[in-house]
Structures are given as C-alpha cells and as structure tokens.
Predict the structure.
Amino acid sequence: MQFPHPFFSSRPAWKWFILINVLVGATMSALDVSIVNVAMPTIRTDFGASMVTIEWVAMAYMLTLTVMLPFFGRLADVIGRAKLYNLGFVVFTVGSGLCGLARSALFLILARMLQAMGAGLLQANSVALITQAFPSRELGRAIGIQGAVQAMAMAVGPFIGGILIGAIGWRWIFFVNLPVGIVGTVVGLYVLPRHVGTGEKPRIDYLGLICFAAGLAALVLAVNTLERSGWRAPLVLGGLVAACVFLPAFVLRELKTGFPMIDLKLFRNWTFTTGNVTGMLSYYVMFAVLFLMPFYVEDVLRFGPALTGALLTPVPLAMAVAAPLAGHISDRHGARIVTTAGMAVASLACFALMLLSTHGRLPVLAGELTLLGIGMGLFTPPNNSAIMWAAPKDKLGLAGGLLNMMRSLGLIFGVDISGLVFTHVAHGYLASKGIAAVRHVSRNTAIPLPVRDGAFMHGFMSVMGSLLALTVLSTLLSIMRRQSPARD
C-alpha cells in the first residue's frame, strides 16, 4: 500500500493510525444517531411543527443512510475507499453545519439527508478500511475495538445531548460535529492509503440504483407507517405494492447487467449470507428491547425519565466491554464459537425479560439488560469480521455497505414491527375486557390501572417471546455457519 505521507509507509504501526481515523468517523456518526433523539421535543417547540413533521428529522436520516449504503460501498470499490471516506467527513461536516443553521423544519430535514449521505460514505467504508489494513490474525480485535467505541458513543449520546441542549441550545448538538469532522478530514488525508480501487472505469447502474432505492424506501415507509395507521392506510398499501414491484425489478436488473450495483453472487457464500441475516436480527432484537423498555419502566414500574435513561446504559456499556474480548477470541479460535455464544447469551437475556412482571425489581432488570449487552458485544465483532473475511478483496466496500445496511434495517424493523405486535396484542387484551381499542393504552386514565398494566404486559411478553425466537434462530444459524480457520 502507498500512503499520502512517507512517515506512515515506513512504519509497521500504520494500521493503528488508520483505525484511529476510522474510530473518529464511527464515533461521530454513531453519536449523531442517539444525540438527536433527545432534542426532538425542543426542536418541535422551536419550529412550532407537528409531531409527524418532526419525526422526519430522524426518519429522513435513517432512510437516506440505509438506502445509500450499498451504493457507496460499491462506488468505493471502484474509485477508492479512502477517497470516499474522506469525502464522507466533508459531507457530514457540511451537513451538520447546515442542520445547526436551519431556520425551518423542512430545511432541517433536507440538511439531515445531506448529513446522512456523509454518514453513509463513512459507514460503508469504515469496516472495509479496517479489513484492508489489518492482517487476518488481528482483524477481530480491530473490529471489536470499533464496536466498543460505537457502543460507547451510543451510550453517552443522550447524556451529552441533554447537557448541550440545556446549556447552549439544540443547535450545538450539530455544531459539535464541526471540529471533529475537520480533524478527521485532515488526519485522513495523511493516514489513509491512496486509491485502492479496482482500476476499472466507473460504471454506475443508475437503473438498478433507482429500483433498489425506490423499493427499499417504499418498504421502510410502509412498515414505519403500519403501526400508526393500520394495513388499509394508502401509504402502507402503496408502499408495499411499490416494494413488490421495484425490489424484484432490481434483482432482475442485477442478474442481467454486466456492472451490477450489488453483486448478488456474494450471497452464494453461506458465511456472508448468514452473517448479514443474523446481523440484522441482532439489531432487530436489541433495538426492540431499547424501544419498549422505557415504556415498561415509566408506565408500569412508575419511575421517572432520569432513572429510565440510566437503566438503558448497561446495554451499550456491556457491549463496549465485551466487544474487544470477543474480537480477540475470534482471532484465535474463529468466529463461529463466539457468535454462537453471543446469541446464546442474548437468548438467555430475552427469556429472562419474558419473566418480568408489574412488580419488577430494578437490580434484576439492570442485570438482564447487561446480559443482553454482553451477548450483543460477543456476537457483533466476530460476525462483522466473518462477513468481511468471506468477501473478495475487490468487494470489501460493497460488503461493508451491505453489512451496515442490514444492521440499519434491523434497527428500523425492530422498532416498527415490535411496536405493531405490541399494539395488536394489547388491543386484543382490551377487547377481551370489553374495552374498545385506544391509543396510548398505558397512559389512558379512563382505563382501570390493572387493565392497563395487563394490556401492556401481554403486549410486552408477546414481543419478548418473538425476540427470544429470533435469538434462538440466530444461535442455530451461527452454529451452522462454516467455521473460518483460526487467525494466525
């Protein structure tokens, strides 16, 4: 490899400089996902916007990020990963500045889409750059360190956001990215390797990109709207129909074109396919738990928001502790044993959460959430390492983009589908008690308290049961994964 600065080309420790630069981007993009959620009520009040409009501040970011990740990964494989990674810093920094300067909700939503483009460029190339830089015997540890840093960023995001909003205003949750982005860009110019693309003339399958983006966006919007509006809503029906048209059209296009956006042959590799599927399921489980747990703590146990926030921190903190250890073990013994152990621990955590009651004890709950975090921390780094290990060297960018896209889909579907299951079961319980379906069951004072709690717990247990089934399935898929050779 060649480096922009001769200082790095003559030193064996160059890979650690690359990792540090990637960690800066990972921290910035992960922090931004969690930090913005804290500011939503304040932003809504400041702009005088409706709840539906403000929801798009988060939704536009996640939707843009998810749809563009594979495309950015494919593009990086052709024209160079380091080049697009540095461009990601620039775009994310500019987008952050525009978010902070926004004077309307619409402008903020558009700026968030630009910011998501930058985050997509960073995320699609981060794991690929690590895989390219580290020898196989150290790859798991390096990816484990990245996972630990991302988990810590997610954990401290709401805390930092609350401090900034209270002290100097919500705009500074975006302005704080500016110095970080500038430093990351400058360091990247000196540290990251030169162009490492395939050398082929960049050819973009625009038709495939349009079909993929339209189909995936329609599917995500339909699922996101389903819980609030029901199956008969025009946006839900239209989204599902559009997804059924555009996604098959995308597959047919990719099979016929000579320069596909996503090389579907990658999915012939069992390790690559199962790794991406279980990666999506793991994020589905984790974010479904993180979505429902605040409602359980506040609406059933009757504790305040401060304690609720504190109770959620064991998940990312436990992940941060377990991730480097999992990466180190997988370097020595292969990914299968560690990913299987991680999903088995997550299954145990979901089973324990199914046993919660209306009189749950906080230390027990904290222990169960810690167990979930340990399981996810054990699973994620070796799974990511196995996915990248299974991909050809000239498609590491695409593999990294697909990996992060699947995790984003797991996050979105975990929240939306678990909310749908919860609502359906809770309303069914109310109907059995002769009460018509209502919104906000657990906070509706017209419903007797025991009935409210009963409806919530029935919905909650149904979701936890489904999550247990998914973790067991992921455990079985991890067992069936082809064992990669121990890293030497």
